[in-house]
Amino acid sequence: MNKNSSNIMALAPNTSNKRETVCIFGTGDFGRALGHKMIQSGYPVVYGSRSTQISNLIPKDAEVLSHAEAAQKAAIIIIAIQRQHYNFLIPLAEILHGKVLVDISNNLKLNQYPESNAEYLAQLLPGSRVVKAFNTVSAWALQSGTLDASRQVFVCGDDVEAKQMVMNIVRALGLTPLDKGSLLAAQEIENYPLQLFPMWKFPIFLSLGLTAFFFFYCLALDVIYTYIYEKKNFSFFIAITIPNRVCPVMALILLALVYLPGIFAAIIQLYRGTKYRRFPDWLDKWMLCRKQLGLIALAFASLHVVFTLVTPMRAFVNWRTSKGIISQALNNKTEPLNNTNAWISDSYLALGILGFFLFVLLGITSLPSVSNNVNWREFRFVQSKLGYLALILCTAHTLVYGGKWFLSPSAYKWYLPNIYMLSLVVPCAVLVVKFVLIFPCVDKPLTQIRQGWERNPKHSE
Amino acid sequence: MNKNSSNIMALAPNTSNKRETVCIFGTGDFGRALGHKMIQSGYPVVYGSRSTQISNLIPKDAEVLSHAEAAQKAAIIIIAIQRQHYNFLIPLAEILHGKVLVDISNNLKLNQYPESNAEYLAQLLPGSRVVKAFNTVSAWALQSGTLDASRQVFVCGDDVEAKQMVMNIVRALGLTPLDKGSLLAAQEIENYPLQLFPMWKFPIFLSLGLTAFFFFYCLALDVIYTYIYEKKNFSFFIAITIPNRVCPVMALILLALVYLPGIFAAIIQLYRGTKYRRFPDWLDKWMLCRKQLGLIALAFASLHVVFTLVTPMRAFVNWRTSKGIISQALNNKTEPLNNTNAWISDSYLALGILGFFLFVLLGITSLPSVSNNVNWREFRFVQSKLGYLALILCTAHTLVYGGKWFLSPSAYKWYLPNIYMLSLVVPCAVLVVKFVLIFPCVDKPLTQIRQGWERNPKHSE
Amino acid sequence: MNKNSSNIMALAPNTSNKRETVCIFGTGDFGRALGHKMIQSGYPVVYGSRSTQISNLIPKDAEVLSHAEAAQKAAIIIIAIQRQHYNFLIPLAEILHGKVLVDISNNLKLNQYPESNAEYLAQLLPGSRVVKAFNTVSAWALQSGTLDASRQVFVCGDDVEAKQMVMNIVRALGLTPLDKGSLLAAQEIENYPLQLFPMWKFPIFLSLGLTAFFFFYCLALDVIYTYIYEKKNFSFFIAITIPNRVCPVMALILLALVYLPGIFAAIIQLYRGTKYRRFPDWLDKWMLCRKQLGLIALAFASLHVVFTLVTPMRAFVNWRTSKGIISQALNNKTEPLNNTNAWISDSYLALGILGFFLFVLLGITSLPSVSNNVNWREFRFVQSKLGYLALILCTAHTLVYGGKWFLSPSAYKWYLPNIYMLSLVVPCAVLVVKFVLIFPCVDKPLTQIRQGWERNPKHSE
Predict the structure, then answer these.
(1) Hey, what CATH class is B22-194 in?
(2) Chains with ≥3 Cβ pairs under 8 A against A?
(3) A183 partner at 20 to 30 Å CA-CA among A140, A177, B19, C435?
């Protein structure tokens, strides 16, 4: 909605002469794209270039001058040049004195240089007011006008007034400036566009690995074993039956892995008797990706739900049901309702539904806009209390569903346990230890430690 | 949560005398509503009015004076008057000199006047500091205290200090100020509350048109044809069967239409050999509403999923299933499991589930709060890579589901193809052309063009 | 994503000497946690403490001095002391003159003191520049680095420059500062972390009460009655059958309760002939929790959908279906398709699906990030027009589903109506009154009243 209005503005530029001239150093792709957009938004643009010959590439309404001349025409100069060439600005130091220099550069690798490009620029030209901005916007998006992705432009700089001037331009282009503070933040801002879901990498690779393992485990037991020993071709199990075995197992294990690091942390703190020592690195990292683990678990759980709900639409299931009914009809008898079976079937379904419901609730509260509206106490209530309740319900769902198999020898093909049994190990362990941890005799010292008490103060020296 | 606390504040006004007097010009509905709310929040309010007789309508605790007297009592004056009457402020120019004037007016139509009301006010009274604010808030919401909708108040103005003063009042009323920059943004802010989903209009009308066409097409082939030639009354197909044919068709076509403009853009760029010329207008507009098209496609896909899942609950389906089983039982035979059918049924279900899963993922990442936390690279990865994967899966789902019908003459009632076949035209075309475009010999020049290279630089002059 | 980069920054502190020394008064838990985090982020930290003996608890790299000495070393002093001890700062007034004092204190109860802690501090030390911040962050989260919850730090203060300095520190710690205006907002900020879903309390207790009532009502009629009079043990109905009766009833009633206060408000306004008098308190409160009521209704509706979709997976349902088919097969006859039944079954399913679809749409638009991107006109369109449409569809779904039971005596066990009938009372009443309210002869005066017109202006004196 907002988007639209800013587009209207861009298409019908305000022709009043209020916009101040902006100078752009560099006629590369991004410099040209930014210039185009600025002209559309009503800014007079002047390019500073080594040669004024390549002018046919740049926007028609822009002037092209030498760097020195161009710089004198504007209060704001956008440095659309690569970091390696910043040196050539040094002779211009006098002309650039007091001007607002906008560093829009990006690096090719994370933390490529010891200091950020913007800080480097500020060191080279101490008399100028350097502002970091625009590096998170893509030239292609600016050019095509299809700013579908984030319209946020991170801005930082030491001079408040200079920052304001740049933020006004950002707004005029239909983007949303976000003040990230002083130039110290430039490193972070420069690293930002290079990331590809950094927090998701470990959880995704872990899930893919586990999924592959469980998939082939099931394939061996359900398809190959059946084919070898029972001469039945159930290869179509690959499409739904096996995925629907792997998904719930993954969901349960990953959900338990969300709560496992908290258990470890509690044990470490109890053992050390203080909270003022850092956790081991692996635990720190694990704790930082709990949200991602939980969301992947939710994805598996959702797939499990849909895979289960399509059951009655499967040709195999319909065939099996018909066969059962026909054999009863041919034998002229009707089986009576087995009350125990009815109880088991209904209660594992109900437990699963409630567990999934809480799971989705946890997922919704982890949406940024929801968690921003929730205070620390509320967040802990939802993520800890409701999260454990979801884990308990999902574990119970699994136990009720297949409890009978534990003692049935036919469940142990090739002497291997069903993956269903493997899936219960982690969640049961987490729940048992958590149960111990909420005993008053354990909970009380732990609470004290978390409030700052130390069993053995000398340890922290 | 936040909401509540601000309400508490409003209900239990801070009685300390720190709040500065606010003057309101005009005793119309919005002026009164705003005055009420300000008094509740602890601001002394004085009204400026032509006659002090109509005082019984305005809040009890407010003073009513002549315009000149009222203006002298406050540093901030809220102009709750229609634009046509702004002229009467000119004689007050001297008194209003240096005061902060808050323009809260709205127009009746988009871009009704050449300049925004706030800019017009600033031109009339050059000595005053004009700030645009509050126009997006409804009087009814202020009055009833039920600010369910957006609590955002867009503020713009050329004077930073004046803007700060207004933003402090906004915050004190329990609303969230959003700085939109200089007074140039006033036009956009004044247009904002007049819009009714402007970006959604075209996608929604397109969907409604296509839906109606496909609905009647199905009605003719499935209900009327069957009634005429087979004497069967399947009128109840209108409720579920036909919607569940139209929904997946619409979802697939709209999803393909999301990716079609990108294909056109690539072809145009390849043909022109440059990215520095504007796309035709229709393509620009199409690209801007891709997100909306995608979300409508997701809505249709979700309906398709639910319509499909209720299948086993339908009386007609149960009757058909029973009939099949009973006829087998009466014939004393059991059909063996058809392995091909089992494969087809399971794999189209699995493809559909995975496609829908990716589709929902795309929908979640298009939530503003999620896409704001994602950088350009991540957004492109999700929307382009995962989007194409979803399109491939959904097209495959459709092909596997009904591939057998292509060669069956009974599928061509009245020599017309099934809508299912029509639905495959656009997605298959998109996928084939995209497949060609990722060939290195095509992809390489395209990438170069998108990085700013031009085949024929003279073209852009 | 953003999260990560800031963590990287925290783990690899910028060793340049640009960060200014920060002084912390108080070596309690939060003071130490904040100090740790600041040192990690590259700030030199000096503690002010009564005795410099307990230094082994505080971070290694921090200095510990007397209060006066510590204060002189820094421009920013964080007051990590409880309000009761603020008095001891008075002797330091001269040293603290002009310094930025950051009040991070929280209270134990809402509105515990007449004025906020920060305002109290500002009164004690009128020469200092007091800023409220950090009170919404938990020590445990700071310590462990797992800032999963909101990273927002509310900041307020009367001195803009001081606020900027504090906000820069907040950003450097990887948190997001949110300017809440002047120190008047401190009360609100101090109340914030004490809340536990205040707006949700009434809707949740109401739902729990009603749910319990309907659950036992159903238990009596469906399980106990059947057991006594028909000698059948249907105790397993507790797991799915009864929840799936209670959920839709709750969803429908709560959805109707969302629209009921609007009806009351309209009637009160029509009766009074003015909108300028406050509604009764209960109505005000009711209107403020409509969003919460609606979301709980959506939760019940979602549960109803999933409970319904698992129907074909229930052992009881499969047994009942088999029994029906087998009895037909044994009697050697096939029942013909009942067209009326097919119509009823398909249309109540279709109505339910469409109603639920609109319901989910309403839920999505109430997400903060979505409703912030929607203007008042659009929000009213969705919440009012689409909301009523959802209510109509859901009521129709219920009526079509069970209309036949109204006249069947077997539905009145123990002369009590089915809960299904009870659920229709409120929604039907809402829809009927709403239907009357949109008659022009009623709608016109109501619209006038809402635009500020008064039937009897003297009333408001």
Answers:
(1) alpha beta
(2) B, C
(3) A140
